[in-house]
Design brief:
The protein is an alpha+beta fold.
């Protein structure tokens, strides 16, 4: 075997194997978005989530279990108190959180979204943090609908959510 063949055998094949293993782990850690069924209830308020497709939020745990919410507000309530709604689990067990983007109604990563607070738009549970994919879209909405501020996921606290009730 020549030098190129030995090099490929020694480095390239293990590198390719590691790449495919990493892809498999990433897929397991970030399950694909799911849609709520007719029996899925929001674990916070008990409403049937499928009735509000424009507002659906979801939390998927690393073990594959997914919970659906009738809006971002209830998703945050759950996130801030996972143990209350799902004993034995913590926020650290969450693999991914998703919300429905207001303008295009696409499911987006909740941690990457921009949220408008204090607008004149109400969701199924009243006042909601309204999610957007981009800060520009959030700015446009805020200006059009009297929003008071734009927050990122990490800027939203339990107190912010409590003020929406």
């Amino acid at each position: 075997m020549n030098w190129i063949g030995r090099t490929m055998q020694k480095f390239l094949i293990p590198t390719i194997a590691l790449f495919f293993m990493a892809m498999a782990l990433a897929a397991a850690a970030d399950p694909k978005p799911a849609s709520p069924g007719k029996k899925d209830k929001c674990p916070v308020c008990g409403m049937f989530v499928y009735k509000y497709p424009d507002w659906v939020g979801q939390i998927s745990f690393a073990d594959g279990k997914t919970f659906f919410f009738d809006g971002a507000k209830d998703l945050f309530k759950y996130y801030f108190n996972v143990a209350k709604y799902n004993p034995g689990k913590t926020a650290a067990d969450i693999a991914v959180m998703r919300v429905t983007e207001y303008y295009d109604m696409q499911i987006i990563n909740a941690r990457a979204a921009f949220y408008v607070i204090g607008s004149d738009v109400f969701g199924p549970m009243g006042k909601e943090p309204i999610p957007f994919k981009t800060q520009a879209a959030a700015e446009e909405f805020k200006n059009d609908h009297g929003g008071t501020k734009i927050l990122t996921f990490d800027q939203i606290s339990r107190a912010v959510i409590d003020q929406l009730d």
